[in-house]
Amino acid sequence: MRIIPAIDIIDGKCVRLSKGDYTTKKIYNEQPLEVAKAFEAHGIRHLHLVDLDGAKSQHIVNHSVLEEIANKTNLQIDFGGGLKSSDDVRIAFESGATQVTGGSIAVKDPSMYKSWLQKYGAQKIILGADANNGKVAISGWLEESDKEVIPFIQDYEKGGVIYVICTDISKDGMLQGPSFELYETILKSTKVKLIASGGISTFEELPKLAKLGCEGTIIGKAIYENRINLKELESYILNT
C-alpha cells in the first residue's frame, strides 16, 4: 500500500482543515516545499497536493506551488482542487503533476471528466468520490450532490476509471480513525484501486487499511500533529 502524505494549500501555505471547514484553517508551515522535502528525506515517494483556494474558486490557483515542488523534489504528485476545465488539467500536468484528481467535475460535467480520461488515460486521472452521509460532496465539500457514493464509483468504473480517492468528510481532520466499513464496502463492490483518505490517526490503522485492500492511503493531520512520525512511515515503506 502506497503511503501518500497530504499538503493542502491556502494562500501558498501548508494548512489543514477539519471536515473541510475553511473556518478551521490551521497553518502548519508557510513553505510547502520544506514539508515536501522532509517527506522525501524519509523515503516517501508520493504526495497528495490539494489546492484549497482552487476548490473554492472553481479554477486552478496554486499551480506555482505544484511547479516548485515538482521541480525541486522527485515526488510523484497527485494534484487536485479547482480542476474544472481542460485548461486547468493542462496547467496541472505542465506544472509537474503525475496524476490529477477530479471530483466535482465528475458530478457536474461527466462529459468533461470523461474527455480527460480519453486524452490522458486512466492511469493519470483519479476519480474523487468524497462522501458525506453516503452522498458525493463537491465544490470543496461546500455542496452535497444527490449521487450515492457506491453507484457513482461503479458507474465510472464501467467508464474506465481505475483510481479512486474516497474521503469520508465526517472523519477528515478529526483524528478519530478512517471509515473502514465504507472502504470495505467499496472494495467488495468494485475492482478499483482505492486510496483511503480522512481520519487516519495512528500508525496501527495503516496495516488494517492495507489488509482491506486499499491501494494507497493519504495521511494529513496525523503527521502534522505528530500522531504518526515520519520515521515510522519510512520503516513501513522499507518493510512492505
Task: Please name the defining characteristics of this protein.
about 240 residues; about 40% helix; globular
Q: How would you describe this protein?
A:
By secondary structure, this protein is α/β, with parallel strands linked by helices. The chain is built from eleven helices and 13 strands. It has an eight-stranded parallel barrel with strand order 1-4-5-6-7-11-12-13, surrounded by six helices. Helix 1 runs parallel beside helix 3. The mean pLDDT is 92.
What's this entry about, in short?
The chain is built from 11 helices and 13 strands. The chain is of the alpha/beta class and 240 residues long. Helix 1 (32-41) runs parallel beside helix 3 (63-72).
SSE inventory with pairings:
Layout: E1 2-10, E2 13-18, E3 21-29, H1 32-41, E4 46-51, H2 52-57, H3 63-72, E5 76-80, H4 86-94, E6 99-102, H5 104-108, H6 110-120, E7 125-128, E8 131-132, E9 135-138, E10 143-148, H7 149-158, E11 163-167, H8 180-189, E12 193-197, H9 205-212, E13 216-219, H10 221-224, H11 230-238
Parallel strand pairs: 1-4, 1-13, 4-5, 5-6, 6-7, 7-11, 11-12, 12-13
Antiparallel strand pairs: 1-2, 2-3, 8-9, 9-10
Helix pairs in contact: 1-3
How do the helices and strands follow one another from N- to C-terminus? EEEHEHHEHEHHEEEEHEHEHEHH
Helix content: 25-40%
Biggest sheet: strand arrangement? 1-4-5-6-7-11-12-13
What's the alpha carbon Rg, rounded to whole Å?
A: 16 Å
* Assembly state: single chain
Largest sheet: 8 strands, parallel, barrel
The separation of the N and C termini measures 8 Å
Content-based structural category = alpha/beta
Number of helices: 11
